[in-house]
Amino acid sequence: MPSEAKQRVRVGIGGWTFEPWRGTFYPDGLIQKRELEYASRKLTTIEVNGTFYGSQKPETFAKWHDETPDGFVFALKGPRYATNRRVLAEGGESVERFLTGGVLELKDKLGPINWQFAATKQFDPADFEGFLKLLPRSLDGRTLRHAVEVRHDSFRTPEFIDLARSYGVAVITAADSKYPQIADATADFVYARIMGTTESDDAGYSPAALDAWTGRARRWAAGDIPDDLDSVTSSAPHTAGRDVFLYVISGFKERNPAAATALIERLG
To answer: Fewer Cβ close by (within 10 Å): the C or N end of the chain?
Structure first.
């Protein structure tokens, strides 16, 4: 794997505060306020779920920036108040409040924003385009990357893929889960959430499964599309490469850091 492609792939977990990780992922005796500092030096990205449920202070984002090393990136969940509504175009105030509420204090460590939709939300072209129009491509001179996590089978249509591509928004690839898989590349980056860790494997996934995900990440980074994932369309825009954000989420959560670090070792 060329070094340039390696640098395009970031692997992480959801959050960093979880009691069962103490003594398994985190060393015994590590104080809780240093857990982000520790996790960010073992992983290359973390997805923050707390921003889905409530706002954070600008000082909090600045603190996260300062506690993590150069090159580390946070993915943020967009607020549920913007996505859990009948008419998506009416969520503009919630989107704006979130984007102007301090997220830029992360500076170069602000990664993609995951706008997650309920499993009951069905695809309506006009309704969904109304939401995509609310997402600015930049803010105060900083480029923003948006991704949408849709969880209803009605989104498995070329019309949705074309719509996401027209706005440069990534469709999140859900894998090893009950949710519909849409692995089409629709932006200059890929956002994947893998949810299949189990208690029976020390690293969450079997060595063969970890090798498979390593291969997929490499293909994405090189600009290719894995041929063993479910896509809606058979084509993708030509590109020399893509940034990849891969998160080990849900499943048997206690094993997620082990799976993420195993993937990082394989990629590196």
So the answer is: C
